């Protein structure tokens, strides 16, 4: 790797406008400090030898801008993962990270776990083409295990047979239930908090009894998921 592309990254935090902000700090050969807020959160790119004080000054000067941008992304963070090495990958509402073991194999770990011996070496930079298939396989495996368990549970509560279950990649629907009794759930659900996943599962299985959105249907949903109104509202905010 050429010197101009050398970079080191770490996870940091700072309090801005009374809020604790976790951000990714990337040091590389550049002359200025740059701030980016996207689906991965706040990313701060700085010169290799920038001091902590200079970085903090910029963040505090831009505090209002940072908070406003983070608020925009807050409710949409789960929808589409960012295939970057420093990204957060959400599982049931908890952030995970991509790490590399001593044997150079990839592994997903909770973001809160600080196991330095498993951090990617600074000189190893993974491409989106390397990250996406690994993370997607992990997501689908987790989704099938968790969603099947929840489908079994809600089917039992409703007294209906276990339906056929498959994952979808739909862009506009969290789930669906066919007239033949097959249930389709969006794999992206596995990124959301468990309460929202359960709501979608309960919603779709209720269609096995009421294939509509009538008052009778919502009574079935409420019978197995009493807080459906709050969950429904939360999903609308996410998108």
From TrEMBL:
It comes from the Bacteria. Residues 31-237 form the YgjP-like metallopeptidase domain. InterPro entries: UTP_pyrophosphatase-like, YgjP-like_metallopeptidase. This is YgjP-like metallopeptidase domain-containing protein. It comes from Nitrosomonas nitrosa.
